[in-house]
Automatic annotation (TrEMBL):
Database matches in InterPro entries: GH, Glyco_hydro_5, Glycosyl_hydrolase_5
Source taxon at top rank: Bacteria
Residues covered by the Glycoside hydrolase family domain: 35-166
Keywords annotated in UniProt: Carbohydrate metabolism, Cellulose degradation, Glycosidase, Hydrolase, Polysaccharide degradation
Pfam families referenced in this protein's UniProt entry, alphabetically: Cellulase
Name of this protein: Glycoside hydrolase family 5 protein
Record has Hydrolase as a keyword: yes
GO molecular function: hydrolase activity
Signal peptide: none
PANTHER family: ENDOGLUCANASE, PUTATIVE (AFU_ORTHOLOGUE AFUA_5G01830)-RELATED (PTHR31297:SF41), GLUCAN ENDO-1,6-BETA-GLUCOSIDASE B (PTHR31297)
Family, per entry: Belongs to the glycosyl hydrolase 5 (cellulase A) family.
Length: 171
């Protein structure tokens, strides 16, 4: 199957500059390994991160926390997104308490050259749930990482998938 041509709709310079400034504001950050641990079947029943950890993160001078989340894994294992959101909410609350920015990262997805037509709608669906959940959060404090380390795939296929994910959230 031949991949569709990727769409392109350049963002005006002022919007790009604003996006760059927001990204720059993340400054130095740290990833919190927890919700991407697909090898740990009990990951949602433990809370490995506590106030002391956030105090240390703040004291060490970090400005942002990146939270990788294995959404596809949880969905495959019939774990409700609401249960996952509860844990994200806890991290968000701590970030707000300690003045840290939060990056929610879509981690360990299944997208590739052969399944992008079926996987892209799943990713869009997940992002629609995420954006609906966190729409009221400040865009200066909560960030979204579209897809962690896209796989080695046809760049046109990836660009098309990414474009469709992003533009579906703008509607």
């Amino acid at each position: 199957m031949q991949p569709a041509n990727a769409k392109s709709n350049p963002i005006p310079l002022t919007q790009r500059q604003a996006a760059f400034n927001r990204a720059k504001s993340l400054n130095n950050g740290i990833s919190i390994s927890w919700l991407e641990q697909t090898w740990n079947k009990d990951i949602l029943s433990i809370k490995p991160i506590n106030n002391t950890d956030f105090e240390l993160i703040k004291r060490l001078g970090f400005k942002s926390v990146r939270l990788p989340v294995a959404f596809a894994y949880f969905e495959t294992n019939k774990i409700t997104v609401e249960k996952v959101f509860t844990h994200i909410d806890e991290v968000l609350e701590q970030c707000n308490t300690y003045g840290l920015k939060l990056i929610i990262d879509y981690h360990y997805g299944n997208l590739n050259d052969t399944n992008y037509l079926t996987e892209t709608p799943k990713i869009i669906n997940q992002w629609l749930k995420l954006t609906k959940r966190y729409i009221r959060e400040s865009p200066e404090k909560v960030f979204f990482e579209l897809y962690n380390e896209p796989p080695h795939m046809n760049p046109k296929v990836w660009k098309d998938a990414a474009y469709n994910i992003v533009t579906s959230l703008e509607k």
